[in-house]
């Protein structure tokens, strides 16, 4: 008999889980609260111009993720990125080859979503279980089901809300800590950053500055810059007005890099409320074979996209073995 499995969250973890389940013969429905897929591997538009607002590049330490990246590169969904950085910095931050999605980071997840049904703008509110299986309830009080098993592939603090009543899961999820990160996308009409394409940890406020248009496969429209604030500064300013945050971070960039006082043509700030993992779980995933529900995400193993991918695959395997 073919089993129906629900996956909540269409980020890298959810989609890698969904694609594993599909390859094992399950019918898979993925439910995503946003209008697009990819989660924190995101391509956002400022006006009509695409920027990578979340993850900036991928690295691969494990064979399984390296194989996936190789597939992406050979099918044109990703390419190697060799930004100009100062030689001291290269040693510090470029220990592994950097890859980016083409034409934007969200291409990274596209092949995983091809063979599964993805339902966007569907925010899951509650899960309930009867002897027939799991029912998924949405924000608008509609529901779908039954499903033989459920994979919850969302940030740990959000997963706690859905899995709070499952024995043992709250304790495990409570150990995980995630930090907010402000991302600001800036468009200028001409090249404004000096020679380097990437600057990291410039001050206590700035974690990352990158020339988005230096990535392969982009169509540069003037100078396109992505700025990420440090988690500490982002936490202090979590409730601030996004426009004020954009102004402040751009001001900090011009001060730190000694740029002339130029007014950007467009700027947009986005807060990733559960942006980066501060304290991870230390296990690949959590799964209850008794209840047939589990959870995955970058926060299980670390803080990188590759951790999300591995966690999703691990949970997919555990679900298949339990059905
Ligand atoms: C600013 C920033 C920079 C980063 N830079 C890098 C980098 O350079 N390299 C790197 O490897 N990693 C980087 N990361 C980390 C990387 O983006 C993550 O590790 C990875 O994308 C996490 O994937 P995930 O599937 O676990 O979670 P997510 O991508 O968060 O996916 C979870 C999905 O679930 C959805 N969701 C949540 N709640 C619900 C609900 N109730 N119902 C339905 N859907 C729901 C969300 O909308 C989201 O799409 C960065 C992250 C940020 C924020």
Automatic annotation (TrEMBL):
Organism: Hyphomicrobium nitrativorans NL23
Alphabetical list of SUPFAM superfamilies matching this protein: FAD/NAD(P)-binding domain
The protein, known as: FAD-dependent oxidoreductase
InterPro entries: Amino_oxidase, FAD/NAD-bd_sf
Superkingdom classification of source: Bacteria
Annotated ranges, domain Amine oxidase: 100-273
GO molecular function: oxidoreductase activity
């Amino acid at each position: 008999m073919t089993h129906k499995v629900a996956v909540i969250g269409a980020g890298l973890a959810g989609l890698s889980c969904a694609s594993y389940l599909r390859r094992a013969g399950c019918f898979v429905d993925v439910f995503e609260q946003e209008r697009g897929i990819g989660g924190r591997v995101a391509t956002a538009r400022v006006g009509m111009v695409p920027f990578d607002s979340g993850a900036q590049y991928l690295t691969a330490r494990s064979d399984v993720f390296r194989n996936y990246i190789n597939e992406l590169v050979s099918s044109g969904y990703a390419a190697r990125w060799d930004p100009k950085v100062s030689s001291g910095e290269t040693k510090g931050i470029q220990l592994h080859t950097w890859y980016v999605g083409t034409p934007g980071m969200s291409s990274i997840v596209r092949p995983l979503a091809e063979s599964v049904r993805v339902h966007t703008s569907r925010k899951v509110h509650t899960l309930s279980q009867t002897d027939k299986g799991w029912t998924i309830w949405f924000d608008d009080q509609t529901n779908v089901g039954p499903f033989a098993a459920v994979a919850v592939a969302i940030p740990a603090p959000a997963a706690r809300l859905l899995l709070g009543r499952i024995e043992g899961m709250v304790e495990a999820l409570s150990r995980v800590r995630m930090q907010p990160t402000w991302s600001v996308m800036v468009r200028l009409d001409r090249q404004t950053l000096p020679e380097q394409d990437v600057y990291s940890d410039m001050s206590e406020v700035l974690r990352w500055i990158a020339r988005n248009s230096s990535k392969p496969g982009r169509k540069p429209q003037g100078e396109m810059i992505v700025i990420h604030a440090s988690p500490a500064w982002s936490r202090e300013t979590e409730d601030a007005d996004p426009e004020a945050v954009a102004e402040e971070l751009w001001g900090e960039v011009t001060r730190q890099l000694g740029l002339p006082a130029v007014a950007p043509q467009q700027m947009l700030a986005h807060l990733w409320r559960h942006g980066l993992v501060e304290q991870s779980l230390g296990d690949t995933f959590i799964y209850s074979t008794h209840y047939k529900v589990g959870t995955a995400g970058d926060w299980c193993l670390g803080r990188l996209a590759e951790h999300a991918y591995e966690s999703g695959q691990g949970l997919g395997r555990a679900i298949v073995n339990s059905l």
